[in-house]
Design goal:
One of its GO terms (biological process) is mRNA transport. It is built from 2 helices and 7 strands. It has 236 residues and is an alpha+beta fold. A 7-stranded antiparallel β-sheet has the order 4-3-2-1-7-6-5.
Length: 236
């Protein structure tokens, strides 16, 4: 009967060799390429989110006359910190590709999708593909509550944009009126300056005439004096 001891010894030698190979030598390998941290801009730095919900977006294909999925991800309504304008932005969850990007305008309305309380529809001039396209959107949320929250906020934003446009119009009208008043005042000042210059010119002409008359008077006096001297000479 053959002995198994050599094989056992051989196995131990292999394990020792493997252990020696795995032993930490303390050597450090520097990375070949140093990667620097890069700041990524989302374009949302100057905006505040007023709603942030998960949903799935569709758009209506006019040619095929059917709904086509645009993507599932995060839907946001973002309000600009300076202008107060609000836009709707939606990005796909994995790729972060933009599938909806448009301003919420005062003329826009959102309606519940027929037969589905978790979905709603609206029209918008969208810029997701890099050019303005009039799209009919349909969005589906995970719950009825999320859908209602979105619809209420959407309509509230549209109403607020109406008020803002009205305020902007009033402000613009006020500025125009102010400019008109300033222009009128400027014209009045110009007219007054022109009148004053005309009066100054008239005064200067009068002074010049007075000087001319004064000069004529002196000449007459000089002539009279000469005549008197001649008469005195003749008498003598």
């Amino acid at each position: 009967m053959a002995s198994t001891e050599p094989k056992h010894e051989h196995r131990e030698e292999e394990e020792e060799a493997t252990g020696a190979d795995d032993e930490d030598t303390g050597a450090q390998v520097a990375p070949i390429v140093q990667l620097e941290e890069v700041a990524v801009s989302t374009g949302e730095e100057n905006e505040n989110p007023i709603i942030d919900l998960k949903a799935k977006l569709y758009r209506f294909d006019k040619d095929g006359k059917q709904w086509k999925e645009r993507g599932a991800g995060t839907l946001k309504l973002l309000k600009h910190k300076e202008t107060g304008k609000v836009r709707l932005v939606m990005r796909q969850s994995k790729t972060l590709k933009i599938c909806a990007n448009h301003l919420v305008l005062p003329t826009m309305t959102v309606q519940e999708h027929a037969g589905n309380e978790k979905s709603c529809v609206w029209h918008a001039p969208d810029f997701a593909d890099g050019e303005l396209k009039n799209e009919l959107f349909c969005i589906r949320f995970a719950s009825i509550e999320n859908c209602k929250s979105f619809m209420e906020m959407f309509q509230e934003v549209a109403e607020s944009q109406k008020k803002q446009e009205s305020e902007d119009g009033s402000t613009a009208a006020g500025l125009l009126e102010k400019l008109s008043v300033e222009d009128k005042n400027s014209e009045d000042k110009s007219d007054r300056k022109a009148e004053e210059k005309t009066k100054e010119g008239d005064v200067k002409e009068e002074k010049a005439e007075d000087k001319t008359k004064e000069g004529d008077g002196k000449e007459e006096k000089a002539e009279d004096q000469d005549a008197e001297k001649k008469d005195e000479s003749a008498s003598a």
